[in-house]
């Protein structure tokens, strides 16, 4: 017996299809897919899997590092998003339960071309944040929102 399809499951299916068609390198598509499934190695996820001593963000030491905190709520990421051409401002994202629900809300009424552009920009900005965060933690490279934005912009050249 086939499962009944809901608009929610159709939306998720459409999101997954769009992710694989964004104009970005495969590793960034996979990263976006992992982000939207909360399958990224944040302090909170590592702590829940008993792989880390603490769930607290290693950058700001203010909150538990969920995917949403790492991308939008950690104080250093806010200028990165403000420099981004998306109309995506971190305080406005507090209404969403997850990265996935925020993405679905933003692309639900858009044409495929606009949705792909939005997702590509979102993915590259998120990737730049992820790379800068990890460079700070593992290589002791200071966090610099302007350089993070510049790194992301280099993908569009």
UniProtKB/TrEMBL annotation:
<feature type="domain" description="Reverse transcriptase zinc-binding">
    <location>
        <begin position="9"/>
        <end position="81"/>
    </location>
</feature>
<dbReference type="InterPro" id="IPR026960">
    <property type="entry name" value="RVT-Znf"/>
</dbReference>
<dbReference type="Pfam" id="PF13966">
    <property type="entry name" value="zf-RVT"/>
</dbReference>
<protein>
    <recommendedName>
        <fullName>Reverse transcriptase zinc-binding domain-containing protein</fullName>
    </recommendedName>
</protein>
């Amino acid at each position: 017996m086939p499962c009944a399809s809901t608009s929610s499951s159709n939306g998720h299916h459409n999101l997954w299809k769009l992710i694989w068609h964004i104009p970005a390198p495969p590793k960034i598509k996979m990263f976006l897919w992992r982000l939207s499934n909360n399958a990224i190695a944040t302090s909170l996820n590592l702590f829940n899997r008993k792989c880390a001593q603490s769930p607290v963000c290693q950058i700001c030491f203010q909150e538990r590092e969920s995917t949403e905190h790492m991308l939008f709520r950690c104080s250093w990421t806010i200028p990165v998003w403000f420099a981004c051409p998306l109309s995506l401002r971190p305080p406005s994202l507090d209404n969403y339960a997850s990265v996935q629900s925020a993405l679905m809300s933003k692309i639900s009424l858009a044409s495929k071309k606009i949705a792909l552009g939005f997702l590509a920009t979102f993915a590259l900005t998120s990737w730049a944040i992820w790379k800068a965060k990890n460079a700070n933690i593992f290589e002791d490279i200071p966090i610099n929102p302007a350089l993070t934005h510049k790194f992301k912009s280099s993908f569009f050249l």
